[in-house]
């Protein structure tokens, strides 16, 4: 079995094969360690930044809420995506997806050195670097999530993207329906002429 460092290296540089192998082996303990590292390190950077700005107790509360919120989202997201993947005909396990998604969060750690680099730049370049690096890491993480779903359930790339986006699309459709229902409750039908 590969060490945790070898698996992280493979996820960063050979993600398709690495995430499929992780989904098959299901190293939940290692995935939890990687997930916690990928949440705690960026939050520590934010914690020290907010603490330096003078807010006394908010950073500690923010750190705890981020940690538990991220863990909850990881677990619930895995459950929802597993259900959707099963409905789309995928063959895999929820534990395999949980492990693969835990490793897929690792690029978030790379935000910290990019934030440090941006703090050394002039203000205009700094804002561009922070925004650009955030978007690159976000797209990279979503790309790894697609590979995690694809490797776990043995589905095509398009189907993996659809599985990943289905909760978002369902949420948008639900909001649209709620807006229509609220609008129909406010507007008298049929209009009085």
Write up what this structure looks like:
- The protein is mainly alpha-helical and 193 residues long.
- The protein has 8 helices and no strands.
- The longest helix has 31 residues.
- The model has no long low-confidence stretch (mean pLDDT 89).
Map the helices and strands.
Elements lengths: L3 H10 L1 H11 L2 H25 L5 H30 L6 H11 L6 H9 L3 H31 L3 H30 L7
Helix pairs in contact: 1-2, 2-5, 2-7, 3-4, 3-5, 4-5, 4-8, 5-7, 6-7, 7-8
Descriptive keywords:
193 residues, mainly alpha, 0% strand, globular, transmembrane, transmembrane helix, Yip1 domain-containing protein
Summarize the structure.
With 193 residues, this protein is mainly α. It has helices at residues 4-13, 15-25, 28-52, 58-87, 94-104, 111-119, 123-153, 157-186.
């Amino acid at each position: 079995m590969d060490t945790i460092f070898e698996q992280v290296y493979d996820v960063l540089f050979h993600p398709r094969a690495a995430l499929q192998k992780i989904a098959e082996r299901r190293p939940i303990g290692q995935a939890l360690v990687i997930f916690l590292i990928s949440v705690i390190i960026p939050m520590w950077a934010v914690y020290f930044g907010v603490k330096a700005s003078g807010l006394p107790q908010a950073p500690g509360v923010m750190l705890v809420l981020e940690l538990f919120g991220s863990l909850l989202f990881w677990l619930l997201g895995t459950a929802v995506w597993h259900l959707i993947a099963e409905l789309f005909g995928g063959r895999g396990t929820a534990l395999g997806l949980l492990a693969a998604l835990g490793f897929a969060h690792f690029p978030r750690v790379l935000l910290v050195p990019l934030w440090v680099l941006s703090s050394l730049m002039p203000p205009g370049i700094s804002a561009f670097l922070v925004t650009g690096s955030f978007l690159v890491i976000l797209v990279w993480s979503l790309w790894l999530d697609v590979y995690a779903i694809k490797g776990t359930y043995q589905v095509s790339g398009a189907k993996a993207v659809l599985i990943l986006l289905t909760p978002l699309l369902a949420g948008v459709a639900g909001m649209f329906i709620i807006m229509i229902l609220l609008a129909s409750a406010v507007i008298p039908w049929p209009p009085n002429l």
